[in-house]
Amino acid sequence: MKFILFVEGHTEKKSLPQFIKKWLDPQLVKPVGIKTVRFEGWQELIKDAPLKALMHLNGNANNEIMAVISLLDLYGPTFYPSHIIGSEERYNWAKKEIESKVNHPMFFQFFAVHEVEAWLLSDPTIFPHEVAKSFPKGKIQSPETINFDEPPAKLLGRLYKDQIKRNYKKVVNGQELFSKLNPDQAYKKCPKLKLLLDKMLELAKSKE
Question: Does 139 have pLDDT greater than 80?
Fold first, then answer.
């Protein structure tokens, strides 16, 4: 059995399946599969998710699929109504909007708040020492509060450049950092990640 995971970028495609399995598999009788489908950004994912999700869920191999899970960064998309400003409001509105367009009980939309890099920030020890010691002390305890003003990837870009005179490369550095990250640490500090992982565990256990 496997999940189909819709993602919007190369970092997510390369890093997230093993990161998620590292948390899921020890809690299951049998390991799950995760097949990633990468889209060219959030616009394409939102536009094509209804068709592609139903192709998987109604296709010949649908009995092997537990669910289609779609993941987007909350920061980046511009399709939110202008009066919806707060992160919680945007999360709830966008989740309902996309799920209603797909309209299938085994499709679930989730968001990384505000980017998947927030999960990395849950464990400063995986970063170069000079970068880690410069993290904003209050917010690093709750990485999902690093917000639209300077979202996690921009924060890392600034700190890498200021502290170690290198660019933060989302794909290369992100893949390396996710390989070091203990998902239990991120699970404890990132409530919206917890929602995603808990739902995947619930679905996987229902198929055991």
Answer: no
